[in-house]
Amino acid sequence: MPPVKIMPCHCPRRRFDHCMTALLVAVLVAACASGPSTAPRADATGDPATQARVAFEAGRFGAAAAGFERAAEASPARRDEFLLRAADAAFQDGDVLRAETFLAAVDANRLNAGDAALARVLQVAVEPGLPAHQRLGLLDPTGALDDSYRPLFHRLRAEALLESGQPYASAVERVRLGALLPDPARRAANGQEILGALQQLTTEQARRLMALNEPTSEIHGWLDLVATVKDALFAGRSLARTVADWEQRYPIHPAAPDVTAQLVEDYGVGVSAPRLIAVLLPESGNLAAAGRSVRDGIVTAFYGQGALGQLRFYDSGPGPTDALNAYRRAAADGADVIIGPLDRAAVTALILEADDAVPVLALNYATVNAPAAAGVFQFGLLPEDEARAAAERMLADGIDRAVTLTPNSAWGDRLRDAFTDHYLALGGVIFDTSVYAESANDFGATLERIVGLQAAQDRRRILENDLGQRVNFVPLRRPDLDGLFLAARPREGRLIKPQLAFHSAGDLPVYATSHVYAGTVDTERDKDLEAIRFCDAPWVIESQGFGLNLPEARETFSSAAGGRARLFALGYDAYRVLPYLDWLVRFPENRFPGATGRLRVADGSRVLRSPDCATFVRGRPRPVEPTLDEDLLAF
After folding, report:
1. E strands within 488-619?
2. What is the pTM for the complete model shown?
3. 514 or 44: whose pLDDT is higher?
4. Rounded to whole angstroms, how far apart are CA atoms 421 and 428?
């Protein structure tokens, strides 16, 4: 549907909703007195508008829509107002297509403040496919919206915030919505949505937010519930006792008793530690060293959890045949669950053969999209996860217009496509995509083009030709470019970042994946990576402690640090997440706090991760706090 007609906005676009917000602030300066809930009661006259209002108040929304349409035709001066009323009535009647048609014909610039706010709310309601940032731009929280539409407004805004990666802000909107819901069943359903949003937070994030809210506030109680339940769940403590203790601290909180009772019933199922764990890792071939790093992580997690059950290792060999034989031996030996194999071809072969007799957590992803048997999961260090995390981080930082620079290789194509697809889906704009040769040392021509210097040079030559003389010229990068996504290994990254500065783009924010960091602190060489933000395994950037003494773990196993640390973290997570796989399938909104990132299960079998981000400060990576909506920290 074409959008409601809106006059152009010329404000700078530093965050993706600023322009629309500025427009709304300008429009919504007067009180609204024409919404349906404030319209005068119908009298005995028979004009179309009065008849439509009578029908609307009686709940005959289809008739009201037709009446307001006739009123729009009969009263050109009030055409937009009556078409908006028709759109509202059609929406209330459940006829979304008809509501879209009416709304498309409305000129929002001819509406008063309250009607303009309503028009934007209805546009979001009838077009749920709009990108989240566009919906948020239309849903101005300061708008002069009639109170009768506030529940719809808060619900739509909560949904858009959740989709845009702001679970806490979404929960805050849901809390506001709950205060407006008179029906207990709807309040309970809304409470489940609050819980679902906050479950995306780690316990550390939830506790940080608790400290920023009054202990008596409702959102404080929700955050405390999520944090304490996750702590208990991941520590194997009684959920029922944990929730009962929480209810004593919050005796009148709206989560009790309906939401908490359902929470205990749901979360108390399907979390149990296996007795015999078979691990299939290669002891020979190209992946033998990687297998040892994964093994070290598994053993560290095993003893860190108190050595529950038994580990048994099997050589999966260098290829699919050996891996399948190891899988069959492990199953015959009575394994309760199998971790591995690591080789991608071996994982593909296992996926095609495995049945649901023994659960499997493969440590890579199959090369085919064949459906896996129930209980067969795939988990690995997908670089695409980091590219998507970089896209989310950029948009959260207000970087919504970007260019990409990736190597001319299959690996570079994978990262570019993952970043671009996710960035565009979240509402970002890609100005240009460029590639480079990994063997190159001079990237000047490519950098000049993507930051707009080449176009500036071309304009200078044209001007000099027209004037017949040289022109004093200071090259500047294009001002509408917000950031650069870079896929590079350390060598290329250390060359490209200084060359950006040389080509008048040193202030351009650069975002990358873990590949730009070698995994070992090298302040002398990595000073050339200054200010690059990259997304990596939390274990590598040390943004949390995982219940271990990190220096001690890295002293015990050399693979726990340096270039092999990510594989170590993969093994560490593979063991720890085993008891929670079925739970994550049942509750896909939840995240498991892992050493490789926050883990979730997608499509019932693929374990995906959301890495943390860091930035280089004087050659040393420093963790960047996960994004939170600063305007909503205290509620």
Report:
1. 510-513, 533-536, 592-593, 598-602, 606-610, 612-617
2. 0.74
3. 514
4. 10
